[in-house]
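Forwarding the complex inputs:
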Amino acid sequence: MTVIETEFVRNRWYIGAFTDQVGRGLSARVVCGEPIVLYRTRAGEPVALADRCVHRRYPLSRSALDGDAIVCGYHGFTYEPSGSCVYVPAQQRIPRTARVMRYPTVEQDSFVWVWIGDPDRADASTVPRAPWLADPAWATVGGQEHLPARYALLVDNLLDLSHETYLHAGTIGTPEVAATPITTTVDDDNSIVHVARHMIDVECPPFYARSTGIAGRIDRWQDIEYRPPCLYLLHVRIAPSGVEPSSDGEDSAAFHVKVVYGITPQTAHSTHIFWAVARDFAQDDPEVSDFLHMSNRTVIGQDIDALTNLEQVITAEAAAYRELSVNIDTGGLAARRLLKRMRRNEPAPAVATDAPVDTAAAVAGAGS
Amino acid sequence: MTGAVYRIWWTPGQDRLTAVCFCRARRECDDPITAWTWLLEHPTDHHPPPERCGADPGDATLQRAGAST
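Prediction (whole assembly, two chains):
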């Protein structure tokens, strides 16, 4: 019997936003169940704070910036980017516990990454990379979508691209995708799943025919690189049939696309999708950009519809149910195993000794 | 770091999967549950030839990982 997990892996980096989504305004986002307010200081540094005033839980994202500090829109409690409260209305003393959590952030590859786990475990060098997105040699389109389904369903979806044939016929799906065997490789030390599907002398789907201009049959490589839990990379190589990379790796006769998915759990039953499609051809052609943007949104919309239905089905079913796994699921099963291991290896939550609550009021049970 | 890399090939034209451990042990399997279970449960000292690798694998590990048939 199976349960498609809803539990988060907290001690990992997740994409909180695209770089250009974080500015001098306050924006709200929930990551792994944690409400976060994002903004940028005057010096340009991204800041992620808990989106709840310690006083009465008012959302700081519904408040205002004064310089680099957030002034709570309800009673004026004022927080520095460190999360420390520096002003309490009408009194001199600032309670020791008057602070909100500041979440570590890293700005890299056009994303703002956040760490919602134990801050002492946040290592910026472990943020997974997608360097093409910030490389001027590549043209990138992208967007953010809301998926009302648990993140594990999206992982299943992306690790088995045979569904393209059926769910995405007309854009990226052709009969050969489902018909071509895969090779699955797991780098166990680094927790990376690779799934390779190399299709030789196949039909070129509209997604690539229109963007590359190739009219005939193609060799189409799909090389998945999944870095659980948060980042999925699909390395695509499209070339006229029979055109191979040279022995030294030179491959300028082919077209290369990097499809990037940031998978950020929002709640146990919803997910943020940060997607991007980068290409090394027609970089200056806005029509190609518009076409790829529109087409990929269509593809993602089809996935969202399917996974929304699936979420509703499995949520309504018994706590455990039976599935059937076949060859196409080899990569998805590998991803499930790594995610399970990550959840199992999560450190126990620290016992809060200075939780930001008003202890006296809590003891007294005082409400508003 | 152990250098552990596991690979499962799906042979074109067939339904069979070939599971290959980093210790070079390999086994043909009918489905991915069996393949992953064998890869993760065959002898942990990884000295080929893996004599136990031909034994019928249990499926406890993958069941724990949420991967059932």
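Confidence is low (pLDDT under 50) at residues 49-69 of chain B.
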